[in-house]
Design a protein that fits this description.
The structure holds two protein chains of two kinds.
Chain A (H helix, E strand, L loop, with lengths): L8 E10 L6 E11 L4 E5 L6 H8 L7 E6 L2 E2 L5 H11 E4 L11 H11 L4 H14 L15 H12 L6 E5 L7 H16 L3 E5 L3 H4 L4 E6 L2 E5 L7 H6 L2
Parallel strand pairs in A: 3-8, 3-9, 6-7, 7-8
Antiparallel strand pairs in A: 1-2, 1-4, 4-5, 9-10
Helix pairs in contact in A: 3-4, 3-5, 5-6
Chain B lengths: L2 H9 L6 H11 L8 H13 L3 E4 L9 E4 L1 H11 L12 H11 L5 H25 L6 H32 L3 H5 L9 H10 L8
Antiparallel strand pairs in B: 1-2
Helix pairs in contact in B: 1-2, 2-3, 5-6, 6-7
Classes of the chains: A alpha/beta, B mainly alpha.
Chain lengths: 243, 207
């Protein structure tokens, strides 16, 4: 991916410390990371390495102890709770391992919900939701309730919701958790396509084969970014290298 | 496996010239095993000597000779399909040897060796994934062969990363002092031992 535009997500020297003194736990230590439009970045690391802390900070669900977190150029620390909630509704979408959709709402209603919460009319929210479903070729799911969909379909709808309206940043935490490998791959492929189409994605996973869908993979250990793969060259170089 | 079985498998379909055998073999193994013409002709000569193939008539206008399987050749290829690949012979994998040496060599930062390799292998896994994602959703038989080879490489890279994760987690449970010990036990002072143990902070549960 050529990432020439301003980054959608910037973490600059971010630390998150819980407690103090004897009981102090450093969840994240001096982490710096940017995700540009069109880019999917994966974060890997063992349990307790700080993956979820990083994602929560990126999504404004938690505040950094030090350092700067900016989404679309807006410093998250500068926002009051109301402003932060608005930023989350308008710019950021989350996809979790499960329980992504509200059971009493259809797929289209689930997707339109953040827009309605943001003051859109039901009609406009529905039309945007249907657009989002169309873009992902999921239109036929519009009026189904979560329990009428397979796990894979639910995760696809969750991705549609994560990127509805003007939202440009999708934060995914083990989004393929309970799915079989083929369905999981379909979900990753969809996430990849949305990033290719201009979204910015941050994916937390412990599965190498899922992280492999990203442009870059960042490795965390004990709250510290210890390494990263760098962006890919053209994959054709692999073909040339083949013995 | 050798080139021998590959050529027998192709000749089981129809008689072929050497040049065609070479291009078919390469196309159908996704270009992962290139042959030169010399190899193909040497192999055919051996197969003919062993009574597994025979020429079909004489040379054509361009001097090419087509070969076909003999009944013994048919038996040979039929039994090859159903003989499992020998997994008893231990292949020497450089990475395995490197890490085995690293954990027993004093002064080697094993964790760093593991991480450096993991990053490189993930880079490879990512590039393979990009190639795979370009393959069509409805592959024909040749695409399918290529896809299977690609997936085999993907699984191998993934297995390597999992193994490296496992190595790392095993190392993190061990006190540093035990890692410093070389294969041939050395005399260490008590102070040295105490020092290295002090640095091996036990892993606490972390949110």
């Amino acid at each position: 991916m050529t990432a020439t535009s301003a980054p959608v997500l910037v973490l600059d020297d971010v630390s998150r410390v819980h407690g103090s003194g004897e009981t102090e736990v450093v969840a994240l230590s001096h982490a710096s990371l940017t995700v540009a439009r069109g880019e999917l970045v994966a974060v890997m690391g063992p349990s307790g390495s700080g993956k979820s802390s990083l994602l929560n900070l990126a999504g404004g669900l938690d505040r950094a102890t030090s350092g700067r977190v900016a989404v679309e150029g807006v410093d998250v620390a500068s926002l009051d709770p109301k402003g932060l909630a608005a930023l989350r509704r308008r710019s950021i979408g989350f996809v979790f391992q499960d329980l992504n959709l509200i059971p009493s709402l259809t797929a289209a209603e689930n997707i339109g919900l953040p827009l309605e919460l943001d003051g859109w009319t039901v009609r406009r929210a529905r039309s945007q939701a249907l657009d989002a479903l169309d873009r992902l070729r999921l239109r036929e799911l519009a009026d189904r309730y979560p329990d009428q969909m397979s796990g894979g379909q639910q995760q696809r709808v969750a991705i549609a919701r994560a990127l509805v309206g003007e939202r440009s940043l999708v934060l995914a935490d083990e989004p393929t958790g309970a799915l079989d490998s083929h369905t999981g791959e379909g979900v990753l492929k969809l996430l990849r396509q949305r990033c290719d189409a201009g979204a910015a994605g941050l994916l937390v996973t412990h599965e190498a084969r899922h992280a492999a869908w990203a442009d870059r993979v960042v490795f965390l250990r004990d709250g510290v970014i210890v390494d990263e793969t760098g962006a890919p060259d053209n994959a054709d170089s692999l073909l040339v290298q083949a013995p | 496996m050798s080139v021998k079985q590959g050529l027998l498998a192709l000749l089981a379909e129809e008689p072929m010239y050497g040049a065609r055998l070479r291009s078919e073999f390469e196309a159908r193994t996704g270009g992962t095993w290139p042959l030169n013409v010399g190899q193909v002709y040497t192999t055919i000569a051996r197969l003919e000597r062993d009574g597994l193939v025979e020429p079909v008539g004489g040379a054509d206008d361009e001097g090419r000779i087509a070969y076909r399987l003999t009944p013994a050749g048919r038996d040979a290829i039929a039994s090859w399909w159903l003989t499992p690949v020998d997994r008893d012979a231990t292949p020497r994998d450089e990475l395995v040897i490197k890490l085995a040496l690293a954990v027993t060599s004093p002064g080697v930062d094993v964790q760093r060796v593991v991480q450096t390799q993991r990053t490189a292998t993930l880079r490879h896994l990512r590039d393979l994934t990009r190639l795979k994602s370009r393959a069509g959703d409805e592959p024909d038989a040749h695409d399918l062969a290529w896809l299977l080879i690609l997936e085999n490489l993907l699984f191998a890279a993934e297995a390597e990363v999992r193994w490296l994760d496992h190595v790392e987690s095993t190392l993190s449970r061990m006190p540093l002092s035990s890692l410093r010990r070389s294969a041939t036990p050395r005399e260490g002072t008590d102070a040295e031992t105490a020092d290295s143990e002090a640095r091996s902070t036990p892993k606490g549960a972390r949110a």
